[in-house]
Amino acid sequence: MNRLGLIERYRDRLPVSEATPIVSLMEGSTPLIPVPAVSELVERETFVKFDGANPTGSFKDRGMTMAVSKALESGAKAVACASTGNTSASAAAYAARAGIACIVVLPAGKIARGKLAQAIAHGATIVPVDGNFDDALAIVLELTSSHDVALVNSINPYRIAGQQTAAWEIVDELEAAPAVHALPVGNAGNITAHWKGYQSVGEAPAMWGFQAEGAAPIVYGEIVDDPETIATAIRIGNPASWDGAVSARDESGGRIEAVTDEEILEAYRLLAGRDGVFCEPASAASVAGIMKFSADLPPGRVVCTLTGHGLKDPDTAITSMGDLDPVPATLSAVLERVGL
Ligand code: F0G
Q1: Candidates 30, 50, 58, 90: which one to mutate for ligand 1, based on the most atoms within 8 Å of Cβ?
Q2: What's the CA gap between 265 and 315, in Å, rounded?
């Protein structure tokens, strides 16, 4: 089969028409990878949906192909987003492809370097602000409501429409939903989209969402003013799709819980070191969550979404896993270091 972008793959289920100019980078159709080491630990057959294999390295491309296509259809000349990094990388790439401008507003100093490199490479206009993601989003909401610029954060319903396709791909491949679908929760668009996607094909896995302990407003039931976590992608204190996440949890009989940075890093290292899958720290929150609450897993399969590629955040990999102190340039020193 020729590879299709996700709008072409699921055209009959998505809000597009012949008049929609499709802006695609052949996103979607990402691998569903069995993870034996995780499976053994949680005592369930577990797969990761590796959305880091999308063209810009994160699940955001699923929503962005829809949002930018629809923005172009409506005649937009520019798009804008607030971002913890991945949305900006994706928006910048799709805007470049569409030949329109892209404005990104980011929390200064809190964007993983790979993501920033992407936004720069694709020619976005980047504005770092002295504030967190929630501050940046408030600015962008005001900017897009008062100027002729299309909003491409996940409040945009086309983003959610596109992101549903991950659930459809899983059901197509497994020929059923898993018993549990686990994913990290930040601004809460993705858990909302997955639940919508499953429901639209008559499936209902228990949706398990995981927030970082220092940025877990849905778990605590209140806004977190100064969210903090090593998983910068989900460093969010007031999620825009809060209600969608709560509905997904409650309607599916699922749960939303907190995992610590140490638990996230443990899952991150296990996935990379034992199962050979390198995701970014926020993505590993899904696997950290099923490890932490494995005693409560119902019978059946488990799917964890790995939302972004490990290369997005090289600094965390190097500082949390590396031992890079040099030794003298001699064979004996190298042999000593490798224990031979
Ligand atoms: N994982 C990664 C790698 C992300 O980049 C994000 C969100 C999430 C999980 C959480 O998804 O927001 O739909 O609950 N990143 C956004 C951004 C906020 O700006 O790139 P969510």
Answers
A1: 58
A2: 13
Distance 235 CA to ligand 1 centre (A): 9
Query: 137: Cβ below 6 Å to ligand 1?
Result: no
192 lines ligand 1 (CB under 6 A): no
Distance 34 CA to ligand 1 centre (A): 23
- Give the phi and the psi of residue 233 in degrees, each rounded to 5: -60, -30
Our mutation pick for probing the ligand 1 site, out of 49, 163, 234, 277, counting the most ligand atoms within 8 A of Cβ, is 234
State which ligand 1 atom lies nearest to the alpha carbon of 312.
Answer: 3
pTM (2 decimals)? 0.96
Burial class, 58, CB count within 10 angstroms (exposed 0-12 / middle 13-18 / buried 19+): buried
- Range list of H helices, the chain: 6-9, 36-42, 60-73, 86-98, 113-121, 133-146, 157-163, 165-174, 189-200, 217-220, 242-252, 261-273, 281-292, 314-321, 331-338
What ligand 1 atom has the least distance to the C-alpha of 84? Answer: 19
Any ligand 1 atom below 6 A from CB of 305: no
Digits of tens for pLDDT over the chain (340 positions)? 568 999 999 999 999 999 999 999 999 999 999 999 999 999 999 999 999 999 999 999 999 999 999 999 999 999 999 999 999 999 999 999 999 999 999 999 999 999 999 999 999 999 999 999 999 999 999 999 999 999 999 999 999 999 999 999 999 999 999 999 999 999 999 999 999 999 999 999 999 999 999 999 999 999 999 999 999 999 999 999 999 999 999 999 999 999 999 999 999 999 999 999 999 999 999 999 999 999 999 999 999 999 999 999 999 999 887 778 899 999 999 999 999 9
